[in-house]
Amino acid sequence: MRKTVSFTRHSANIFFHLLTRCNLRCRHCYINPDQHGRNTLDIGTIDRWLVLFALRHPSSNVIFLGGEPTLHPDLSVAVKRSRQLGYASVTIDTNGYLFHDILNRVTPKEVDYFSFSLDGPSPKVNDPLRGEGSFKQCTQGVVAAKKHGFSVSLIYTVSQANIDHLQRMPPLLEKLGVDRFFIQVIGVRGQWTEDAKCVESLAQVDRDTWLKVIPPVAEAVARLGITVTFPKVFLDPDECFECAGLVADNYFIFPNGRVYRCPLCEDYGLHSLEIRHDRLVKTPKVNESDLFPLLIPEGCVMNRIIQPSNLPPAVGGKLPYKIACCMLKEEITAS
Ligand code: SF4
Ligand code: SF4
User: How many structural domains compose the chain?
Assistant: First the structure.
């Protein structure tokens, strides 16, 4: 069953970056320490910031990220505290190295998903993008998490470097026992902006290629009983465009206290909120929230600002498609 997953309007999603440090150096890493900070939040601060968002949005979903969040020695404490505060779900995003014996310090009742990042069906495809040995470590991590009884999701970030190998993922996902599969578009931000200058293949894929490759692979994965989510990316001209910054409650929190509502803004000081002295305050103009209401016929206004080459060319005065909000997803579940 295929459906567009409109933005969750009744529950918030808290993407909580506990630190920006990581043991890997992925070529497309979106972390930008100049903008996001280099500090590691102490557990007291994490606790107070969790309380802040739990009060503002009861029953929201929290996703712990980094850097690599399992490098944080108190991640297990943060997970348990999230449960006590009534967060509806807890996810840990990891590169698979699972530091600090995290699988033995939290339980499947406390963590809804361990979400692993893998960008290829083999070391040959994955490791040049994510680092030598990372395929082995990630797949071993998935197996270990499953053995401990955790639900596991896997994220594949698509670029020109690995789209041709996506079709080899379904059997690997089945073999590993992955419960959910997320396909992502490579982001034009963070480390990508440096590496893309010398690594042509890190580029985003065009619309025709995306539509030709992604839905059939997603359907193949769903036929194995694995739910698949992928970004919609392109809208037909008559489809309704919505900006998540206006209609949904997503918060991307960084260790320097910046809180963004739109991931595309994260390379710039455009955050609309900031945590100061444990209080959430609005930032002065101009920030991302001043951009969200700017309607353009091509769809997402941030695409026009930071990646205008993505915008559709007008043909005979008409646009063949629009650029969807990066947070609009399609989901395929086995019926
Ligand atoms: S993308 Fe994730 S795993 Fe890779 S270097 Fe960045 S934080 Fe680390
Ligand atoms: S990606 Fe575009 S449409 Fe989505 S929140 Fe950001 S500015 Fe709005």
Answer: 1
